[in-house]
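Appendix B. One record, verbatim.
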Amino acid sequence: MANSKQIAAVMGPTLIVLSATEAINLHIWATNIAPVTYLNGTILFVAGLAIVRFHNVWMRGWPTIVTMAGWILLLAGLFRMFAPEAPQAGENIATYAMLGLLFAFGSILTLKAYSREK
């Protein structure tokens, strides 16, 4: 549980900020150049891989959200690395739903990481 809280303490606020700023600046992906998209994918992939490697927990409870978020980051990074010239997430309901899900994951992780145990 201590490992889950340590990862959640970093990942939670990061997901909150990442999802909020991507929702605000979603239009930048329409005109972004491929090398920047590839670099973003590399960063997402490495972060997701590190989380999955050190925290591959599938159990009933909130620590599973850490693992799920790691897999989402890893897969999003792979997509951006393999297809940097492909149209990235556009301004549509599916994109905003995914960003909302990441924001919710980040909020739960932040609350769990910084709350006191009973």
